[in-house]
Write a structure and sequence with these properties.
The protein has 229 residues and is an alpha+beta fold. The chain is built from four helices and twelve strands. Strands 1, 2, 3, 4, 5, 6, 7, 8, 9, 10, 11 and 12 form a twelve-stranded antiparallel sheet that branches.
């Protein structure tokens, strides 16, 4: 009996030791990715993604669009190649306006800021015509430099990096300070999906040195139902 009991104890110890080794090996393989490998993994997820949701907000500023429109906050859904839905809070002539915009099947709609009824509009009259949220991440990754892994925590990587302001035209359009070095931080899950990007400082002429743009991403590859208004 003693022999059998000792054998059972040893088997139990070996089992838990094996579980511990497997668990540790998984953690090491995930955390051992360097910054370039993390970016490469994330780029592949972006390229192969079909849809995602985003939420843009600001601290100490806004994003200026042509026609005296300043986006204070915007969120929406994206489905490649060109379906876009945006709900935005816009400041114009010191008034806060809520607008919704839909691009679907090469047709465009925008809501009346007073009645909130949908109106089909020519592309040239669309206040969002100069931005391209579908390609924001792809453009940011196109020339990302000085990438550093800051920490790995809760199954997520935090990286710091620099980009050229010219690679933010998808976000801010043509109203931009050209060829300016911009600091960013990226929060990327260990699966490679971008959860959040922080963009620090001056990107547009009216920005402040402490302006912060925060873009959160979610619902990667979740199917979206699209209907014309």
């Amino acid at each position: 009996m003693t022999y059998k009991r000792n054998k059972l104890i040893n088997l139990t110890k070996n089992f838990f030791l094996l579980i511990l080794i497997i668990s540790c090996s998984k953690n090491v393989s995930t955390q051992s990715l360097n910054s370039e490998e993390i970016i490469s993994l994330s780029q592949s997820k972006i390229v192969n993604s079909k849809s995602f949701s985003f939420d843009l907000k600001h601290k100490n500023g806004s994003t200026e669009l042509p026609g005296d429109y300043n986006i204070s906050r915007a969120n929406g859904d994206i489905q490649k190649p060109n379906n876009i839905m945006i709900d935005a809070e816009i400041i114009s002539n010191n008034f806060l306006i809520k607008l919704s915009y839909l691009s679907l099947n090469d047709r465009y709609w925008i809501t009346n800021p007073i009645s909130f009824d949908w109106m089909e509009t020519p592309e040239e009259d669309n206040p969002f015509r100069n931005i391209d949220p579908i390609n924001i991440l792809g453009d940011i990754y196109a020339e990302i430099e000085s990438i550093k892994l800051v920490e790995y925590k809760n199954n997520e990587y935090l990286l710091s990096a620099n980009i050229n302001s010219n690679n933010l035209t998808s976000l801010v359009g043509d109203i931009i300070i050209p060829n300016k070095n911009v600091d960013i931080e990226l929060f990327i899950t260990d699966q490679g999906f971008v959860r959040k990007i922080l963009i620090f400082g001056e990107v547009q002429p009216n920005d402040l040195s402490n302006t912060l743009r925060e873009i959160s991403f979610s619902n990667w590859n979740v199917e979206i139902e699209w209907d014309e208004p």
